[in-house]
């Protein structure tokens, strides 16, 4: 049966990160007449492309230029600063749209699960990422007073955090970090950053392009303990059979042979260390590990490293969305090819669908799969009771929700770009929500 409604299919996409925008693109590019409203709880679009990707990765940040082209399509409307689940309930969404696609990402972080984690100097890496990227909900800028910092985890987020800590502020001065963040980075007293992996070097989740940047850091010595480079049999098998693992291990081996140059900052990559606890009375004073004997499954010898701050970069964790089913084991919404289980008309894409894995590009095929499911269901979807696009703005206005339109966002975008230009930078991000809204919606 062909699509038979006498009006375009009305779809809401909740979350203007890459998954949501790729889904919107696939929807309006389909053969069916579809109009899409894209929501975000923040005044700015682009999700983790704006608030996750490190500021010293402008090429990756520039993916937002491609995403922008999608949001400019006439069949789309952008509603920023609208929290779906609070400002608009799921029932509202069902009334306004034939289908609702959630692409809300994964907001939570994983705890370390050790004693001392509650000490003030121990924080989720996600908080630091949000801070340096100017997320409006991040804690305010503060001086970086620790000389020695541990980053627990062996993935790219740990590397981003470590790089942002050891990079001298002058080398970040051309990036888009908010002014207050740049000022705080200028007070950074760090000398040593320890990135700590529980397992051996063959199991590290770092990717080669990110690793290859490390030796390029100015006035930073990269230190790998040659004792950590002993490979047990399973590690050796991985090295022999997996090219990516081999590349990583070759890089670590090469770095383990380099003598330090006397740089003022050091980035240490440590392996085979299982975190035992975070020590300190009022604040962090050290981390303690059980050290594995490479080549043996046993952890034993306790090692202490004095640090004043700890960042936990061991992954992100999903949280339930109001009214939607949730699988606590995977931290995602249970679905079949993007269709939320037992909830006709509701769909998921991106990290909320498959968990916090993969790079930006992986969200495209994922979103396309979901949109294929949605379009295949189009003729049998329960039709919206209030499909008039004006019903959305009327509802938001009746609830006094200060929503941000696409043109409002463009005003903020232009402001950030021109402020950056006047400072010789790509952009200077505004991180205060009230200020953002004031620029978006001048009175
Ligand atoms: C720190 C970090 C660095 C990364 N760096 C890179 C990198 O360099 N290169 C790379 O390829 N990948 C990188 N990634 C991975 C990449 O960011 C993800 O693959 C991608 O962002 C996931 O897309 P998403 O749309 O599912 O989620 P998100 O990007 O998180 O977007 C979700 C959006 O939903 C919005 N939202 C949430 N709840 C609501 C609600 N209730 N109502 C309305 N809106 C809501 C959020 O505000 C957000 O804008 C990084 C990830 C992290 C965490």
From TrEMBL:
Gene3D superfamilies: FAD/NAD(P)-binding domain, NAD(P)-binding Rossmann-like Domain. Residues 10-170 form the FAD/NAD(P)-binding domain. Keywords: FAD, Flavoprotein, NADP, Oxidoreductase. Signal peptide: none annotated. The keyword Flavoprotein applies. Pfam families: Pyr_redox_2. Its cofactor is FAD. Coiled coil: none annotated. Its EC number is 1.18.1.2. SUPFAM superfamilies: Nucleotide-binding domain. It catalyses: 2 reduced [2Fe-2S]-[ferredoxin] + NADP(+) + H(+) = 2 oxidized [2Fe-2S]-[ferredoxin] + NADPH. Transmembrane segments: none annotated. Belongs to the ferredoxin--NADP reductase type 1 family. This is ferredoxin--NADP(+) reductase. It comes from Fodinicola feengrottensis. The lineage of its organism: Bacteria, Bacillati, Actinomycetota, Actinomycetes, Mycobacteriales.
